[in-house]
Every structure is written in C-alpha cells, then in structure tokens.
Predict the 3D structure of the following.
Amino acid sequence: MDMRSALRLIPLMVIGAVAAFLLAGPLTSFYKTHAVASRPQPSPSSTVDPHASPTTCPASLPMPKSPAALTPSTPSLPFPIWVNDPLGVNLRSAASASGTRLATLSQGTQATADGRAPDASGNTWYHVTLGSQAGWVRSDFVVTTALHAASGSGWSLMLPQGYQVASSSNASLTTVSKTGDDLPFLVLQTTTSDTLTVQLPGLLRPDIAPVADHTATIAVWSVNPVTEQVSRVALDTCKVTSAWARPDQGWPFMSAVYVHTKGRNYEFSFFTAEPNSTIVKQVLDSVALS
C-alpha cells in the first residue's frame, strides 16, 4: 500500500473508533444498571444482632429499664392442679379453713379443679376432684403447672415442667436449668460449715457488681424470716452473643436467698427475666429442708 492509500484510511479508522465508543458506552451502562437492579436485597430479620461485636472482652450491654410487672393469667375451668406445698394440702368439705377435713393431699398430687370460690378472708379456694374424692383446697397451696420432684443434700423441692437438674459430681452444688436457656435458672449451694462462698454462673460479668433492685422478707420451709435480695447482673456478651435478644436484654434479675438451719446453710441463687418471678416464689414455697 502506497503512502496516499494509507492517508485515505486514517479518517475511516477514526470514524470507526468513535462509533464503537458511542455504542459500547450505553451498552456497558445498561448491563451495569441491570446487574445492580437484579441483585437480591437482604430482608430485615429480627434474628440479626443489631449490636456490633465486642472488640474487647469481657463485654456487656447497657442496663435496660425494669420491665413491667406481669399479671399471671387464670386458667378456665376445669383445669389440672398439682399440690406444691411440702406438707401437702387439706381437702375440706367447704371453701373455708373451718370446713371438715376430708383428707390430706401430699406434695406432687394431681387433681382437677372444677370450681373456685373466695372465703371470708379473701383467700381463693378450688373445688377439686381426685378419683372418688371431691372437696375444696386453698389455691396458694397448689399450682396449675405440671411438677416433678428434685432433691439433694438436706433439701427437696418441686420443679415446673421444662426445668431440670444438671448432672454433677459435687453434692454441695446443684444447678437447675430451663430448657433452651444457657443461663441456669437456679444455683443451689449447701454446706455444713459456718461459711459459704457463693458461686455464680460463668456467663456473668465477674467484674461488674450486681445492681440492687429490692429486698423482701419471706419464709422458706419453717425458717422465718428470710431475706430475699433481688438485683440485676450483667451477662458477658462475649459468651452469650444473643444476650440482646433475651427477655432480660442481657441483664437478668438475680434473687439471692440465704437460709440457715440448725445443721446446714443454703444459698439459693435464681436468675429470671422478672424482678418478682412467680416461678421463683413457686419453687421456694415447695422447699423442704433438714
């Protein structure tokens, strides 16, 4: 090709390059836009942790405000009841302590409540049937959740369905867990010595002191008065990564009850989402000590 022919091709090459650029630009823009538009977007999920992962451990969440008090629901008649009191409950001919005692139902006995009535003092009574027997029992001696017995060194109590004692080779330390919860429901320690060192679950922050909520005076077995100290304790979010999603929001309530008897000392440490847990009261009402 001579020089004259080469010079004639240069304008044609420039025009072709410009056309290719103008054509490729919109196509490239179209495919990029299409790819972004078609990419699936993540949907909101309640299981996603809204808190950033801790960069240093141990770590905890800010303490939330106290939850509102829960009002226990009353089941519709008829419903099953279980005797919770360690001394049992008297079955009477009328909804009154002065009614004739027909029998004594032992702890753990199941019956069916088919009526309810108040007495002159404001106590609620259930009319129950048990086989061929029928009569009235006071409602605060029974519960409406299935029970099973647990016992250890110098103690026995009743646990609701879904709560179980963890196996242990240490007779002086008992842990009760609730199905599906990493944090124990109860740590029970016993000793015959004059001193007792409280052992708390390893999921708690040992470097953050409990924050007092309230104290109450109660009775446990035949020991009265007994002080119940309720406080909030911090979970270690490095160990309980879903602490933010718990009902206690990472700050469960600890109910500490120390009981001294003639031959033994007991420390009950309960962990719940409420400051006045009905389950804690129910378990303490069922306790028998030696």
Summary: The radius of gyration is 34 Å. The first strand starts at residue 79 and ends at 83. The longest helix spans residues 3-38. The domain at 79-141 is CATH 2.30.30.40 (SH3 type barrels.).
